[in-house]
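[job 4471] stage=fold_predict status=RUNNING
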Amino acid sequence: MVDQKTLAYINLYAVLGTLENLCELDPAAGDLLANKKPISIGFDVKGGPSATLSFKNGRCRLEQGVASCDVKLPFSSCEKFNGLIDGTVTPIPSKGFTKIKFLLKEFTALTDLLNKYMRPDPADLYDDEFFAISTSLMFYTITVAIAQIANNDKVGIFTANLIEDGDIEMSIEGGPSATLRAKDGRIVTLKCKPDNPRAVMSFASMKLARDLFDGNVNALECIGSGAISMKGLISMIDNLNRLLDRVAVYLA
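[job 4471] inference complete, writing structure tokens
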């Protein structure tokens, strides 16, 4: 079962939050923001997440809260916010009506570009650059989604409480890395490599990671062949894999 509150946290922090990485990885995303005044969009979900996307100098940053946003989009429920992501709900700003052009033009173009990478045409994946960007964006979305499930989903909360405090490294050889920082039964994702991880899960290549994300290979077979490397406190990795199983439910 999909919990709408958990899905809202995933949609805001893991999906829209990946716009940060899109602007870093694809020059076309930065070009959409070129010569534009800094602007920030706040998403305020009743009974759910609250965060602001700030756009400045061709880059994007996601920050907690909506206190200082230029445009504020309120949602009466998590279901309504999730409707924004699946295209069934059109929000009405409660602040920043004069800046609505950015929402309709640049912001929509950015989310369309993100969707192109996240739900790609199979033919596009034959382009090496597109493949690398698409796989990296999926990696960041998945690693952030793990934390949202650990902190909000009932099954995820139970699993997260079994994870010892410390950093888990997830990484792709020749690609991105992330830190899953566990403390007191909660997890925070940092989009960088940890200095002193207690456990490490590493994928041998971008292609392997992609095949795993798309469900085209068996994870246990990859572990057996060494294509997926696991080091350190294996119990942390075991529970991380249980959270990954829940990610597949929410991002299917």
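[job 4471] summary: Strands lie at 39-45, 50-56, 59-64, 71-75, 166-172, 177-183, 186-190, 199-203, 228-232.
[job 4471] exit 0
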